[in-house]
Amino acid sequence: MRLLLIADTHVPQRAKDLPAQLWAAVDAADVVLHAGDWVDVSLLDALEARAARVIGCYGNNDGPPLRERLPEVARAELGGVRFAVIHETGQAAGREARCAARFPDVDVLVFGHSHIPWDTVAPGGLRLLNPGSPTDRRRQPHHTYLTAVVGGGELTELTLHRIGA
Fold first, then answer.
1. What are the angstrom distances between the C-alpha of 21 and each of 33, 120, 130, 165?
2. What residues does the Calcineurin-like phosphoesterase domain cover (predicted)?
3. Which range of residues forms the domain containing residue 124?
4. Which residue among 48, 133, 137, 164 is least crowded, i.e. fewest CB within 10 A of its CB?
5. Contact 18/42 with Cβ under 8 angstroms?
6. Global model pTM greater than 0.85
7. What is the pLDDT of residues 129-141, one digit of tens each?
8. How many domains does the chain have?
9. Would you say 131 and 5 are in contact if contact means Cβ atoms under 8 Å apart?
10. Radius of gyration of the chain from Cα atoms?
């Protein structure tokens, strides 16, 4: 099963739309996981219309229309791997231990908010992934997103993509 992991799209504040490269990744994915800060419900509608499946949560920049349709934490089992998707995890210092304590029943935690790509493993095995942002790189060198393959209880082929590269 092919996964696309995105967060912090901020459409239409930081971009009028997702980059064409990212829409192509949406088309290729079996599941899109979005870790919040959509900003406008029209992007959720567009992703749901185009993607095979969308799993997402709301972020701190998402108002009532998005919060009515999305949870604070989304959960799903995909290919035998237990996922949770959340926007904020707090400061980087202590993140692994804090998230492992909060999500003891999860294999992979996808998060956003910082716009900084992140891939670490907490004590106990929880994998923490932040895809960065495809539209607002802030102090990062590139706009980014992640793809992966999941199956047989394993997450494989995790790739950080740069927009335009």
1. 16, 26, 19, 9
2. 1-148
3. 2-162
4. 164
5. no
6. yes
7. 999 999 998 888 9
8. 1
9. yes
10. 14
